[in-house]
Design a protein that fits this description.
The chain is of the alpha/beta class and 291 residues long. The chain has nine helices and twelve strands.
Length: 291
């Protein structure tokens, strides 16, 4: 997947990893100079990044670099120590969570549901941001549930329990729940966790289809770099709580970046199928083993 904006950021610094260029105020999601932590521990420091509207942007980086923390902070689930997050030009920093949930839908890592819950009931929970004591369940809500199940090709699962489903079916149903929020923006935290390669591709094909067909903005976290390259318009590469590089995969994925960000020796070639970068990890030398 390719696009011309925003411009790639691959700046380097001798002593610390660089921040992305200061983002412009535009539609989509814009994080500006945010710092986030847990207690006394700072996870993200003075980070800025832009996630453009109508595109798929994937956050990648080594374990513990702050990917999921960034997603939680931008969704309002974690308080910011400093900085702002704007969603479609609205500053969500001081918003209540229910207000934020009308702007963006969030699918966390490994979501859980009560045992025996029907698929239709789970998906209906996505309508919570639109409920109030004076506004009860309506035909609009019912239609949103049916539409979401149809968009993910899960309508035939509506009367089954979540426990009966395969991993791929469950993930489609969880995505349906997020879709019923009827937001322009979807945050997906590792949507392929615990899925085999074929099912992971199936889920990412669904995400790509939703983005293109429904015009959704998608921000997700992935661990598999080649899948991230294949299914993303843009990448945000993180390390140690900061942005090391951002831009389209073809603009920023190089052997040098992989070495710096992931401590990974790899060869980057052109994918003969798509023309995207294809990452081939190199074996570590065994010349230093003891006799």
């Amino acid at each position: 997947m390719t696009s011309s904006t925003p411009q790639p950021n691959t700046a380097q610094h001798n002593t610390a990893l660089p921040n992305a260029a200061q983002p412009s105020d535009t539609s989509g999601v814009v994080a500006s100079s945010i710092t986030v932590g847990y207690g006394e521990r700072t996870i993200i420091r003075d980070l800025s990044a832009t996630f453009p509207a109508g595109k798929i942007t994937t956050i990648v980086g080594p374990n513990g670099c702050g990917k999921s923390t960034l997603l939680r902070a931008m969704s309002g689930l974690l308080d910011l120590n400093t900085g702002t997050v704007r969603v479609n030009n609205q500053d969500i920093t001081a918003m209540k969570r229910k207000e934020v949930a009308r702007l963006l839908g969030v699918l966390p890592q490994s979501p859980v549901a009560p045992e025996g819950l029907l698929v239709s009931d789970l998906v209906a929970r996505g309508r919570h941001p639109h409920q109030a004591w004076f506004r009860q369940w309506s035909s609009t809500d019912e239609g949103a549930v049916l539409e979401a199940l149809e968009q993910t090709d899960s309508k035939d699962l509506a009367n089954r329990t979540l426990d009966e489903l395969s991993g791929g079916q469950r993930q489609r149903v969880w995505i349906s729940m997020v879709l019923t929020q009827n937001t322009d923006i979807l945050f997906l935290d590792e949507p392929t966790t615990y899925l085999d390669l074929a099912t992971s591709v199936d889920i990412l094909e669904l995400v790509e289809d939703l983005c293109q067909r429904l015009g959704r903005t998608v921000v997700m976290v992935l661990h598999d770099l080649n899948l991230a390259v294949r299914y993303s318009d843009y990448l945000v590469v993180m390390n140690e709580g900061q942005v090391m590089a951002s831009g389209s995969p073809s603009e920023i994925i190089t052997a040098e970046l992989l070495q710096r960000a992931f401590d990974l020796r790899a060869r980057v070639i052109e994918d003969p199928e798509t023309g995207d970068p294809l990452i081939i990890p190199l074996k570590k030398s065994r010349n230093n083993t003891l006799d």
